[in-house]
Write a structure and sequence with these properties.
This protein is of the alpha/beta class and 634 residues long. It is built from 16 helices and 22 strands.
Length: 634
């Protein structure tokens, strides 16, 4: 029996999904050849950015009933359906129960975990470990898995089409196919960040509390922040909520609810004071109470694939190019969908035929996008009061539900039509200038509206405001500087009638690199692949949105522009040609995550089967018969 080898470089959730699909497709194929699968990752198998040993106050951003690592009958063209437990199913099966806002394994007490509970990311990591163990126990015959607990260093082409994989442990092995699923990485710090870091370190003798934390990986870096420091958190998105939780709950503080379910904060005395700020100066909107079940999605009436195809054809006729302009071609119809969902929530029933949004609905959507547009704030206090009111209103809407509350029904559209948006923008679907504006301006706004934290996080934000432990920066677009005389960071207003400022000791950058910048990458593996010409950056004209260049099958494109049919990149390494690759697979929505894993697995095993058939034919070529014929003819 011949054996073939597949290398999966990176083994977080994406690699785990690929292993599951390879095993399922191999089992159905039942070939006459064996398969060796090498998994390369320094961490715990399958956990990736969700390690099981992280603090329990860091929560998953998707409700437990919607997260899965297994296929269901909604998944198309991804190999055989092989169901398995969701995160909720697994947590219940192993005895986890909810006790207030926490979760623990217990036979008695507490409450059964519900499909709409947001579980700690540590449990998510344990779920991934369970999935890995389940897959190993059920491997088909003649499939062998080897786990290399280290980093990959390089990949070299071999004559004949195979590849040599080089690990930093010194191990080298040949593979017929390589899949790059390295997940979240870190791009190099900018020159400005390096300069700021150096200046900060030089002033620590003057102010021992002074720190610049450019990355919160691992989260344990926050433990170095003294309790008597004031911390400036740059960014008010998902990472910021984790930082706030770590510096409050993680320091022993507690939130408790009163009779009206309003949260209040009981300090431990170990918390630093917090100043949060961003370009717009307002936090992400809260996720609403889920009323759609595990697989419910808003079904677009206007922003559909046939409509996108038609608009592409029109642009091609007009310009000779199928590339779209997001603001001109796509955004107006997304607004129409949001207005329709708003009106549908108000009425309960609405005919989409000849529907046009009412002016008041357009105005509502515009205000959701730009809540302070046209407003002038005279003082720091007036801006802070406006932001607080904005958060309180948003929490009230979130409690109303993502179907029953018109505002949240409208903003949830942006989450539910994500696959349609990918269909429009992926693989250079936008013009160069539009692509740049889409990522720089439209996406942050859409994420702020639709990809926020659970509503409880914004309720906690209000409680910290009330307790005097947290404040907002002085207006939008506040200017950050390091005052060397004070040896403190200074944040100065730029859009207030009366100038105001904040000073703080610690600057924490609340962001995660979600697009791989190959030209400035901390990963030696990706740098070596780039230097060796195996990969190249994805480009849309002269614009580099990040990520490896791949074709529509996710095969990487090398430095010479050749598609490498036996090398794939899935997930975050291909964030650039693909949009929004970092969401986990969901139940009953034909998850793109699972589709891509399945299509990759099907393609790999079909290619191996074809190779093996060729070798079989060569092995059974009747050479002795041809010789006998030649002798007879002579």
């Amino acid at each position: 029996m011949r054996n073939y080898r597949v290398a999966i470089v990176g083994f977080g959730p994406r690699g785990l999904s690929l292993l599951e699909r390879l095993a399922a497709v191999y089992r159905e194929l039942a070939p006459g050849w064996g398969l060796a699968i090498d998994l390369v990752d320094p961490g715990e198998p399958g956990q990736g950015a969700h390690p099981a040993d992280q603090p329990d106050h860091l929560l998953a951003n998707t409700v437990s009933g919607q997260v899965t690592m297994f296929t269901d009958d909604s998944v198309r063209q991804a190999g055989p359906i092989d169901p398995g437990p969701s995160l909720m199913d697994w947590a219940r099966a192993v005895g986890y129960r909810r006790f207030g806002s926490g979760f623990a394994q217990a036979q008695l007490g507490g409450e059964v975990i519900g499909e709409n509970d947001y579980l700690p990311r540590s449990l998510l990591g344990r779920y991934f470990s369970y999935v890995y163990g389940r897959l190993l126990e059920a491997l088909p015959p003649n499939v062998v898995v080897t786990y290399h607990r280290c980093l990959a260093k390089d990949v070299h082409r071999r004559p004949g089409g195979d590849y040599e994989v080089v690990l930093d442990s010194g191990v080298r092995f040949d593979a017929n196919h390589v899949v790059i699923v390295t997940g979240h990485g870190d791009n190099d710090l900018t020159e400005a960040d390096i300069n700021l870091l150096n200046r900060t370190q030089a002033l620590q003798a003057v102010n021992p509390r002074l720190r610049f934390i450019a990355r919160v990986k691992p989260f344990s870096v926050l433990q170095s922040i003294p309790k008597d420091a004031t911390v400036g958190i740059q960014g008010i998105g998902l990472t910021a909520y984790d930082i706030i939780a770590d510096l409050t709950i993680g320091r022993g503080g507690e939130f408790h609810a009163d009779a009206d379910q309003r949260l209040h904060y009981r300090a431990s005395g170990q918390e630093p004071r917090l100043v949060v700020f961003s370009r717009q100066g307002i936090p992400f909107c809260a996720r609403a109470t889920n009323e759609k079940g595990v697989g419910g999605l808003y079904k677009p009436r206007f922003f559909t694939r046939p409509w996108i195809d038609r608009i592409r054809e029109e642009r091609h006729r007009d310009t000779g190019s199928e590339q779209l302009d997001f603001d001109r071609d796509l955004w107006p119809v997304l607004v129409k969908e949001m207005c329709f969902a708003y009106r549908l929530s108000e009425t309960g029933e609405l005919d989409a035929t000849d529907y046009e949004p009412l002016p008041r609905h357009r105005a509502i959507v515009e205000k959701l996008l730009f809540p302070f547009k046209g407003k002038i704030f005279d003082t720091d206090e007036s801006f802070a009061a406006a932001v607080k009111q904005h958060v309180e209103d948003d929490v009230a809407h979130a409690k109303g539900g993502n179907v029953s509350d018109p505002v949240k029904a409208a903003t949830d559209v942006l989450r539910d039509v994500r696959d349609y948006l990918r269909y429009a923008v992926d693989y250079g679907g936008l013009t160069e200038s539009s692509h740049r504006a889409f990522l720089g301006e439209a996406v942050p706004n859409m994420y702020r509206l639709s990809a926020g934290a659970p509503k409880e996080r914004n309720m906690e934000l209000l409680a910290l405001l009330e307790a005097g432990l947290l404040s907002f920066g002085p207006g939008p677009n506040a200017q950050l500087d390091l005052d060397e005389q004070q040896a403190r960071f200074v944040l100065r207003s730029t859009r207030l009638g009366q100038p105001a400022s904040r000073t703080f000791d610690v600057l924490v950058r609340a962001r995660t690199d979600c697009a791989v910048e190959l030209s400035g990458q901390t990963s030696p593996f990706l740098r070596n692949l780039l230097d060796g010409g195996i990969i190249r950056p994805f480009m849309n004209g002269a614009f580099s949105p990040g990520g490896l260049d791949v074709d529509s099958a996710q095969n990487v494109v090398d430095a010479q522009g050749r598609v490498q049919k036996r090398v794939w990149a899935l997930g975050i390494p291909a964030e650039g040609p693909n949009f929004c690759t970092y969401v986990l697979p969901r139940v009953q929505v034909n998850s793109r995550f699972l589709q891509f894993s399945g299509r990759c697995a099907v393609s790999i095993l079909a290619d191996i089967d074809a190779q093996d058939a060729v070798l079989d034919a060569q092995a059974h070529r009747p050479e002795d018969v041809s010789i006998a014929v030649e002798q007879h003819d002579g």
